[in-house]
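Quick sanity check, rRNA methyltransferase:
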Amino acid sequence: MHNLIYLTDLDDAALDPYVRLNEAQLSHALKPGLFIAESPKVIERALRAGYRPASLMVEEKFLERDLADLDHEMAVNKTAGLGHTPIYVANSDLVRQLPGYNLLRGALAAMYRISRPRLTDFLTTLPTSHPRIAILESVVNPANIGAIFRSAAALGIDGVVVTSDSADPLYRRSSRVAMGTVFQVPWTYIDAKSWQNDGITLLHQLGYQTAAMALRHNTVSIDDPRLNRVDKLAIILGAEGPGLRESTIVQSDFTIKIPMAPGVDSLNVAAASALAFWELGNR
C-alpha cells in the first residue's frame, strides 16, 4: 500500500524541496543533501541505484497513471526501496504553484544524495582492461550534461568525471534529459581548482592517456587507429563556446577532432560526445 497524503495547501515545511528550495539549496538540505527526480522512469532508476527517497509528490489527476507507471518500472526491474515513503497528492491548483510546473513530466521525488568517491578511489572501481572514461570540464549546461550521460550509458563509457564548476548531473533537468542514466553510469566530481594539476597528473600516473577534444595543428581524427590501441583512455570535453582550457590541451596525450564538412569547425558538446563515444567507447 502506498502512503498517500492529500494536500490542501503547500505550507508544510516537508514540502520545501518542491516549493521553496532551489536546486543549489537542495544540495545542502537535510545532509547529505537532496535532489529532485522527475517522472516514474527516472525515479525508478534512482531507486534501483540505491538512492533513498525522502518523499514523492504526484498531481491528483495523474495519481493512478503515475503510480501504475512507477509500480510497473519497479516490478520489471525488481526494484525495492519505496516502502512507506510519504507520497503527497496535490490538486491541479496547488501544482500550478510549483516552480516549472508547466514542464512537469509526471511524479516528483525528493531523494537523498550519496557521497562521491575521490578520483583515486573512483578509478579503482572501473574495469581494469581497456577502460574508457569521459571528463567533463566546466560543462555548465544541465541539458548538455544529461545528454552526455545518456550517450555514455548507451555507447560504452565506463565512468564519467565532472569538474566541480560544471552543472550538477543530479539537477532535475540533467537527470530528466539523461532519462535517469545519471544513476546508471558511475561518476564522481573533481575539484575544478585541482583538476588542472592533480587530476590530469593522477590520470597519467594510473596509466591513462588523455584525449582532449580540440582543434590544434596536431589534432587527429577520432577514428585514428592509435586511439583504439590505447589501453586506458580518458576523453576530455569542454564547455560550449570557450572549449577546453589551454593547459588541459597542452597536458593531453592526444587532441582529437570529428571530421566535418568545410565551413563547420565544431558541434554542440553533447552531439560531439555521442560521436566520440561511438568511435572510442567499449561497445
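Posting the structure with no commentary besides this: The mean pLDDT is 91.
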